[in-house]
Fold this protein.
Amino acid sequence: MENLIFAVTQIFAPVNLILMVLGGVAGIIVGCLPGLTATMALALLVPFTFTMPAASGLIMLGGLYVGAMFGDAIPAILINTPGTPSAIATTFDGYPLAKKGMAQQALITNAFSSLVGGLIGTIVLLTLSPPLAELGLKFGPPEYFWMAIFGLTIIGTIASDSILKGLIAGALGLLLSTVGISPIGGDVRFTMGLVPLQAGINLMAALIGFFCIPQVLEMVETGAQKHQVIRYVSQKGLLKKTIRELIRKPVLLVRSSLLGVLIGIIPGAGGNIASLVSYNEAVRWSKNPEEFGKGTLDGIVATETANCSVVQGSLIPMLTLGIPGSPAAAVILGALLLHGIQPGRQLYTTFGGITYTFILSFFLAVVFMFFFVALGSRFFAKMISIPYHYLVPGIAFLSVVGSYALRNNLLDMALMLILGYTAYVLRKLGFNPGALVLGLIMGPFAEQGLVQSLLMGKAAGSIPKVLFGRPISLMLIGLSLLSIAWPIYSAWRSRQQHSKITTKEGEIIDAQ
Amino acid sequence: MLNSDSLSGLAILALSFIGYYQSQGFSYFSKIFVLWVLIILAMLGGALLIKGLMRPETLKFWSNEARSKRLGLTVLILTGYAALLPIIGFILASIMMFFSLSLLLTDPTRRRSARMWISTLAISCIITLLFELVFRHALLVPLPVGRIFLG
Amino acid sequence: MRSRPLGLLLLAAVLILSAAFPGLAAEKYPNKPITYLITFDPGGQSDIEARRQQPLLEKYLGVPIIITYKTGGGGSVGWSELANSPADGYTIAGNNIPHIILQPIERTNAGYRTEDLEPVAMFQSTPIGLAVLKSSPLTTLEEFIAYAKRNPGAITIAGSGTYSGHHLAYLQLEKLTGAKFTYIPFTGAAPQVTAFLGGHTMAILANSNDLVQHQDRIRVLAFGGLERFPALPDVPTFRELGYDLTASIDRGVCVPRGTDPARIKVLEEAFLAIANDPAIRQQMIDQGFIPLAMGAAEFKQYIAEKTAEYTELLQNLTTR
């Protein structure tokens, strides 16, 4: 209890408030720029926190982490480019909304959803950490494998116009993910003799390639006239109106937030998987699944709540067990260690004050960021109106420089361009770049999960028992089957309804 | 006019065979997953090839000449930019890329005025240098360094 | 904006000038920022050490230290980058033993040779320990080995990486005890420890700091150090138990081959001064490391010894 009181006094200390806002704004900027990741920005900030008290340093780092999750949706909505891998699914509906002239609504939705996700995530972090951390440990190699398979079934949703091509794109993504040094066998695979390629294909560089470059080329191709259609129109009272609309979706908001937390606690699975899964579930449970992908606020709600609550989810195993749930959490763990704080049980006893300050500061940070992004939405949305002949070179510039800055690697830049040109051609041929990225994300989980399960199975004397005989695995297998069957079922259902309507119309015609 | 689906299917099949050939030397644990993915990919590629033959779908890639020309030039500028960065460095290469791409996308009728050229050049320089200052000097984020000019 | 092109041009000129002349060069070393390459992800142990050193390095050397990540390939991508960097002392990199020895032996295309990396100083050692969960019925190394002999291959051991320090320790363990285990490689300390704590593997070969961190849940059977490990003094070493197995991960820094020895000396002094700082030493001990302060010459000698040892070991095992 005294820890909580200490925490509250810490959070409202003016210095800490300023640091929180500074961290948050830096996070938004970093999140906005593809190529600057939250992980890198956090690492950059760690030495500066040495001179601060531990609580202040953590407040600033937490603010930055949260800010990045608010910021990454902005380029996703405005220029169809995810600022971090967590915002991939935000492009599916965000950009169509911007094209309809609803960029500001989309941005407000992003702010509000992130707020809800952050609040729910923090409540869970505060109250349920220890049991959830134990649950996260139940995830072993077979579970990771099935999680990857379940993740891949999302192709059915995002490539619904041609499942066959979607599957091909997914398989290509899986194949791309095997480039580099094999995680288990140690062999060098598909590097064409290039040493820097031993590091594998960087997900963010690939994302920039898959999303930014086709966008640039498409804008060049369609020309100025077409582009000016999505000019931003300022509207009054939009904030209240949009939020009122969003509050009427409590189930969607809460479900997506909880999904984010749950996926966050699985070490290694981050915001990218959480937001994609949450998007997939939103489509599945929606009464109007056909609206997704064409620009519905629900799509943004699903992804942005999940990718914000993932932040707190990933901190659960870190604070309770000392296992970082995401790369960004790993950096925060490093900062804790450098301040002489060992995670684990004593984090809630000896260092309780600092820990609770850190957790409670998220409440305030998400509220701050909400006002920042919501009130700033009008300003951000105006970025669309930057003249076409400056906007396009600007995106190209950011893509090239961003892909270099990621890992300080010229090869990443070259790969980004090659993948980008390929993605443009693939898009023309009807292959979905989202499915390709999905394969690239799930590939390492699928491969390591599979091979480690095989090794475990051999040691235990039965490979099928390890792969198919574990409760969480069985649940994931069930979910995957459901996920595969659902689009087929709903297609069948809509055809049924469709034929009913036509017959009804037919009857009417008859009656006349 | 080409049968796009069948051609894509063929390309996918070819890719899986190249992959299979390349994976021959891998050890068992490096190969198994790759092998599964390649088998699935080859099957899907075959399915696409057959689908293309049964229900041919043709695709017109570029709608008109002006557009393809603009597109080709953009690809050229971007590729050139990436190639020049490690040689002439971040500042010069970026200014050149921004300037040329911006000019390419400006309405041809307005391209004649000198004032337009100057303001495009100025904006190219400002954006590049702001980036340089903020990233390399304030945030210490690495930017490409050239062999001829360090910037 | 379009109405004032000349004003914009002026602004551009000012920016060009300020960027082009950041300061005139002098002959003293160091006089410009030093890039410190980290070959593993942010948040990893190499990164934490570098972040710990960064402010002190800046104090001793008087120039900014820029920490840059060049990750992948178990570190080889970063080390090959360093090997190809100018040998002017302005690019340094963290180097890990045994990684920099094993990679060039194990794959011909690692992108660098061990001797391309000129050692500067070594500041930390983390002995590798063998542990089981507290709930495991196996309480000593003897019982562990006896169980493995009765059930060949049934004991799964989580490690980090293939042909890494952990993998080698496992190979040595099999060779010295004659028992069979199943080694399951993971892609880093976090996934490895998670899988072990979750009971998905029966044992783990892990770095001392991870074992110290999770000591309430696990039972460490033996450590690979020469002496008992200060943070867990009750745990015997393999040597005490009669197995000649020493295994550790050691961290230091290196520069490209051909760097001016005078410059190496400057760097060496700075790193050793930090390594000898009592506060830093105490922090390292608390977190489960053994602080060291080994200079360039001694470090070079150590690498040579280890190279001979590992080359022989790998040849004997004839794994390939």
Notes: DSSP finds eleven helices and ten strands in chain C.
